[in-house]
From TrEMBL:
PANTHER family: ATP-DEPENDENT CLP PROTEASE (PTHR11638), HEAT SHOCK PROTEIN 104 (PTHR11638:SF18)
GO aspect biological process, one term: cellular response to heat
Lineage of the species this protein comes from: Bacteria, Bacillati, Actinomycetota, Actinomycetes, Mycobacteriales
Keyword Nucleotide-binding among UniProt keywords: yes
Originating organism: Mycobacteroides abscessus MAB_091912_2446
Protein name (Swiss-Prot/TrEMBL): UvrB/uvrC motif family protein
Keywords: ATP-binding, Nucleotide-binding
One Pfam family from the record: AAA_2
Protein origin, superkingdom: Bacteria
Ranges where the UVR domain occurs: 31-66
SUPFAM superfamilies with a match to the protein in the record: P-loop containing nucleoside triphosphate hydrolases
GO cellular component: cytoplasm
Length: 267
């Protein structure tokens, strides 16, 4: 087995052991109820309401007895049973490693991918070509037919404001990673010439402005559980387009009737 697989099983087993050694939540609830009963009993005694104090004393004794029975059951029963690490524990650990929610891992992948267009159209009205192109790229990636050195897909959604370019990016991030916040946005207006575009890969001058401008692209490259969205790409010039296209192969999907469709290979 690969080392990562062994580490995954080891961490899942360690979590299972810690959980078995930790008192169950209902025991903590008993402790809270007992503490509340004692506080109310002391308050009743201070107020010289002895009848109420007697009732609270009996209630406290009953709670203490119930807690003792539950603790005995937990220690004699649950700890004697051999614990098994199943696929749910493995999925939970893997979800923490990758940032992908557990339900995204355990759900039947084929079924999810086949209805990807329907899921995206719950938030996107129209734009059939763009949704279909994105869905095909993701399915191709999950089938293992993409270049492993490149991202799952790189698209340019061209069109005027309000047609759903950014919303489709958010919907895609939610579908893949379960959260709209998994979308990293890069303002391409900051990379309008060749010098500023070099910030995408590390500028020659290590200034605070450089580090601030390059933070989003670096997050985009380093993250395995996020999608990236570049806005205001029309601000790019011919010279600044070359370094920007080094990220990956780019396909332009038109999202407006008059938008041009362009296919570009890396420069």
């Amino acid at each position: 087995m690969p080392d990562k697989a062994i580490d995954l099983i080891d961490e899942a087993g360690a979590r299972m052991r810690i959980r078995r050694m930790t008192a169950p939540p209902d025991l903590r609830e008993f402790d809270e109820k007992i503490a509340d009963a004692r506080r109310e009993k002391e308050s009743a005694i201070d107020a010289q309401d002895f009848e109420k104090a007697a009732r609270l004393r009996d209630s406290e004794k009953q709670l203490v007895a119930q807690r003792a029975d539950r603790e005995k059951q937990w220690r004699s029963g649950d700890l004697d049973v051999v614990a098994e690490v199943d696929d749910e524990q493995i999925a939970e650990v893997l979800g923490n490693w990758t940032g992908i929610p557990v339900f995204k891992l355990t759900e039947e992948e084929t079924t999810r991918l086949l209805r990807m267009e329907d899921e995206l159209h719950k938030r996107i009205i129209g734009q059939e070509d763009a949704v279909k192109a994105v869905s095909k790229a993701i399915r191709r990636t999950r089938a293992g037919l993409k270049d492993p050195r490149r991202p799952s897909g790189s698209f340019i959604f061209a069109g005027p404001s309000g047609v759903g370019k950014t919303e489709l990016s958010k919907a895609l991030a939610n579908f893949l990673f379960g959260d709209d916040d998994a979308l990293i946005q890069i303002d391409m207006g900051e990379f309008h010439d060749r010098f500023t575009a070099s910030r995408l890969f590390g500028a020659p001058r290590d200034t605070s402005a450089t580090r601030r401008a390059a933070s989003s692209p670096r997050r985009c490259v380093a993250s395995r559980s996020a999608s990236c969205c570049s806005t205001r790409s029309r601000r790019l010039t011919r010279r600044s387009t070359t370094p920007c296209c080094r990220f990956s192969r780019t396909v332009v999907s038109p999202m407006a009737r008059d938008a041009r469709s362009i296919s570009r290979t890396p420069c």
